[in-house]
């Protein structure tokens, strides 16, 4: 048994169980209410109860004054529903709604997903959380002002850990550390979130999602966010690699299409050796997507990978498939050896607008 919660002025609704906080329930179902710490300390999740009853968490006694409580205010990261509720709260729908923060993070887990890919799960301090939109990225802060950019591979509702997918780059300062010396409980500093590559939730169009290599990370976040939000827009996912090992979470991606009828998934290899006996599609991943979807006039396209792949996809989708320019969203990973970073490191951020958007960033990730 649970309770129905409605949010004003958006009129969005979600279901809350008796023993979960209002914020937990909203995030679990893909609704982004504002928050900072999820521990009743920062006050970012403060909102008003217009009708209904809730149980105040102990932390609220310190952060909210008695006058605030009498006026109907609550901290949604601590409060739990005790009846159907009507709340007044803003919602996080664009990058302008989210503050950029610098936080420490501890390495919780290192998983060798492929010979040249490690998945890092980072744990923030107990009283901190990073709010972000699915598909955005963070900078890892290094010595001498250097930074490394990595997409967040987890959906916003699953923020107990921040997940990064790191591909090894020869000569890379940070990737060398990840693959050679990094261990669990090591401490890092990160800053973010950044980027305009995220799902436009106000559109009802089918989505074409194309990833190359570890460009799968933000695509994974977007798909898992859409699933949590119970979004039923058709999603056609293409993930390309050179060989089978490059599709390092293939079973996960395949499970999406098995469990959700509106999701299709197609893996593509461009240089698979005969010994692998690959039974699937071959070629350039965006070309395979074009072959299946020769007309994209009614679609949105989300493309993440190398600059060459992103550039080719944009040109071909717009020229040959009639994709509207404003419906092309991209995150392009650019690479730089450490010896060249001082000359070439840059990040071009384009805020979301009606003409589409793209992020370009120098990173050792692929």
Task: List the SSEs and their pairings.
Blueprint lengths: L2 E6 L3 E5 L5 H7 L17 E6 L2 E2 L4 H4 L2 H5 L2 E3 L4 E2 L3 E4 L12 E14 L2 E7 L13 E5 L5 E5 L10 E6 L5 H8 L6 E8 L12 E6 L3 H13 L6 E7 L8 H10 L3 E7 L11 E2 L2 H8 L7 E6 L1 H14 L7 E7 L6 H4 L2 E3 L7 E6 L4
Parallel strand pairs: 1-7, 14-15, 14-18, 15-16, 16-17, 18-19, 19-21
Antiparallel strand pairs: 1-2, 3-5, 3-7, 4-6, 8-9, 8-13, 9-12, 10-11, 10-13, 20-21
Please, could you describe this protein's structure?
Residues 347-366 are annotated as: Disordered. This is CDP-6-deoxy-delta-3,4-glucoseen reductase. Pfam families: FAD_binding_6, Fer2, NAD_binding_1. The chain has 366 residues and is α/β, with parallel strands linked by helices. It folds into three domains: 3-91, Ubiquitin-like (UB roll), CATH 3.10.20; 96-194, Elongation Factor Tu (Ef-tu), domain 3 (Beta Barrel); 207-362, Nucleotide-binding domain of ferredoxin-NADP reductase (FNR) module (Rossmann fold). The protein contains nine helices and 21 strands. It has helices at residues 22-28, 60-63, 66-70, 173-180, 216-228, 250-259, 285-292, 307-320, 341-344; strands spanning 3-8, 12-16, 46-51, 54-55, 73-75, 80-81, 85-88, 101-114, 117-123, 137-141, 147-151, 162-167, 187-194, 207-212, 235-241, 263-269, 281-282, 300-305, 328-334, 347-349, 357-362. The strands form four sheets. The chain has an eight-stranded mixed sheet with strand order 17-16-15-14-18-19-21-20, sandwiched between helices. It has a six-stranded antiparallel sheet with strand order 11-10-13-8-9-12, with helices on one face. A hairpin with a 3-residue loop joins β1 (3-8) and β2. α7 (285-292) runs parallel beside α8 (307-320). The longest helix has 14 residues, at 307-320. The relative contact order is 0.12. Mean pLDDT is 86; it is low at 336-355.
